[in-house]
Predict the structure.
Amino acid sequence: MRRGQTSVSQEDYLKAIWEMLEEDQVPISARLAEELNVSPPAVTAALKRMTRDGHVKVERGGRIHLTAKARKTAQHLMVRHQLAEMLLTEVIGLSWSKAHAEAERMEHAISPEVEALLLKKFAGRKACPHGVPMTGGIAELRKQGGVLLSELKPKENAEILCVYEKDEGFLEFLEGLHLLPATRVEVLKREYDETMTLRAGGHTMHLGKPATTRIWVKRLAA
């Protein structure tokens, strides 16, 4: 691998850092170790290599910054990931809840030729199956009027825009409740512990804060 190029491992690091920035988290070594399920020494070694290769800069306090070329690499990898999710769910029929994990493995292997064909096939699509915008990430959701479900009050109505896609168990839970992007929900009640009672698709359900803080919605007029 020539200096300046990225390995599969480095691509995983760059995407993880980019996602943290998109989610308004401060990228630091400890969070990377947790996110990628690797040891702190492994993160330290990887950051040294990526700093040497011009992909990241690490402040004295530990905050990690992506260089312009690294940001471009991370964004490109996210697009390939989303294309893989579309291929898996819409062409071969893989479960919506399993698509993210499978796409994590596929995204590194998609060739430029296949990528071009997938972009052509899914031209016009603005979001992945989980609702994550193809460009702009969380910032784009906010531009669309997106807020977390946890911010809604009783009697408010909303449409689901996007759900947290990294937890397969969470996706299976939402799939079982039919809480998918484009689903309309009504907040019936909020408890003191922030548990919410919702109505969606003619069914009433209860969601705790761990779930409502991972679902992005857009408020609808009453």
Remarks:
- The chain has three domains: 8-66, 71-140, 145-220.
- The chain has a mean pLDDT of 90.
